[in-house]
Specification:
Length: about 230
């Protein structure tokens, strides 16, 4: 039945919109352009984030369609690329016991209908043959990160992330997934909540990392963070 449906309504490549054959996740032309090595960036909390893509114009469009236009089919390609990057980077240390995601507040989830980070995390878990578990939640009414300036993302206090049940994470090694890493503050805050509640170690992954804005690449980030720590306005 799925094969018949795909013949009548063929899925489209997330990156160029070319029609795809049954069970393909992206066209061969776009697949050939995938980066050979993953992006790896450090977080302020000591972890690293692994991603298959840099947040370029093509990837940005594919993720925007995924997040805001209901293109859930894009999950297939994103998760396959992310799973490959994780295997590549953590090949000698795939010790995380389960995979979780950056949570979305109930009001935003109700408005959008799904949490894009959860979709890609669940499929990545299937591909890596690891269980998925929801262990974090976010307060309703929390400010959306993508609406904040670069400086506000870094300096604003954000205590909207919480643990569902500390017993779920105590002593565990966890892979935490988000859709896009910009400054790394969201992943860092979620990682800190997990570790404050007993997680032994947190690995991080994302579909894409914004070039030049992460902690590892940006002196501007370091300058702003240092000023905020010293109580000065950025």
């Amino acid at each position: 039945m799925n094969r018949l449906i795909s013949l009548i309504y063929p899925p489209k490549c997330p990156y160029c919109s070319a029609a795809l054959k049954y069970d393909m996740t992206e066209c061969l032309v776009c697949r050939a352009k995938f980066p050979e090595t993953p992006r790896i960036e450090p977080l302020v909390t000591g972890e690293i984030c692994v991603a298959p893509f840099t947040y370029s114009s093509v990837i940005r469009k594919a993720i925007a369609q995924y997040k805001y236009r209901g293109k859930k089919f894009n999950t297939n390609s994103f998760a396959a690329a992310l799973a490959s990057s994780i295997r590549n980077v953590y090949s000698k240390d795939m010790s995380f016991e389960f995979i979780t995601c950056v949570p979305m507040s109930r009001d935003r989830r109700k408005k959008r209908g799904y949490n894009q980070a959860e979709l890609v995390a669940r499929m990545t878990a299937e591909l890596l043959e690891k269980p998925f578990a929801e262990v974090l939640y976010r307060d309703d009414g929390a400010a959306e990160q993508h609406l904040k300036s670069f400086e506000k993302r870094i300096t604003d206090e954000d205590d909207s992330f919480h643990i569902i049940d500390a017993s779920l994470v105590k002593g565990k090694q966890i892979l935490l997934i988000d859709d896009v890493m910009t400054t790394g503050t969201t992943l860092s805050r979620c990682s800190r909540v997990l570790k404050d509640n007993g997680a032994e170690r947190v690995f991080c992954g994302a579909i894409a990392i914004v070039k030049g804005y992460s902690f590892g690449n940006s002196n501007r980030y370091i300058d702003i963070a240092a000023k905020a720590k010293n109580g000065k306005e950025p």
